[in-house]
Amino acid sequence: RELGVESRFWIQRELGRGAKSLVVDVWDALHDVRRALKIATVKSARRAFEAEYRLLTELRHPHSARAYCFH
Predict the structure, then answer these.
(1) Which of 12, 36, 39, 42 is spaced 20 to 30 Å from 53 by Cα?
(2) Phi and psi (nearest 5°) for 34?
(3) How far apart are CA 15 and CA 25, in angstroms?
(4) pLDDT at site 1
(5) Residue 31 backbone dihedrals phi, psi, to 5 degrees
(6) 50 — phi, psi (to 5°)?
(7) Neighbours of 44 (CB within 10 A)
(8) Averaged over 14-42, what is the pLDDT?
């Protein structure tokens, strides 16, 4: 398990990095689909990411990412 990522996600490459997170291109082996995965790089970001996840689960727009799970 690289970067604390579940074994169902196979990391392909890094897409971007910010002050509190890393975004990687992953293969979701459970659903057999490619996804982008955002990983908190500092523990203090967890609460903000939870709020972001809740907002994204309610948002439906063709130009917005969908949130599938939060761990």
Answers:
(1) 12
(2) -85, 140
(3) 6
(4) 46
(5) -105, 0
(6) -60, -45
(7) 8
(8) 93
List 26's β-bridge partners, or say none. Answer: 11, 35
Query: Tokens representing 24?
Result: 């990687």
- For 6-26, how does the pLDDT look when each residue is reduced to its tens digit (9 = 90+)? 788 999 999 999 999 999 999
What is the pTM for the complete model shown? 0.77
Residues in the chain: 71
The encoded tokens of residue 20 equal: 């509190």
Q: Which of 58, 56, 19, 54 is nearest to 36 (CA)?
A: 56
**DSSP per residue over the chain, as a string?**
-GGG--TTEEEEEEEEE-SSEEEEEEEETTTTEEEEEEEESSGGGHHHHHHHHHHHHH---TTSPPP----
Q: Answer yes or no: are the C-beta atoms of 39 and 22 closer than 8 Å.
A: yes
Alpha-carbon torsion, ordered 68, 39, 70, 62, to 10 deg: -30
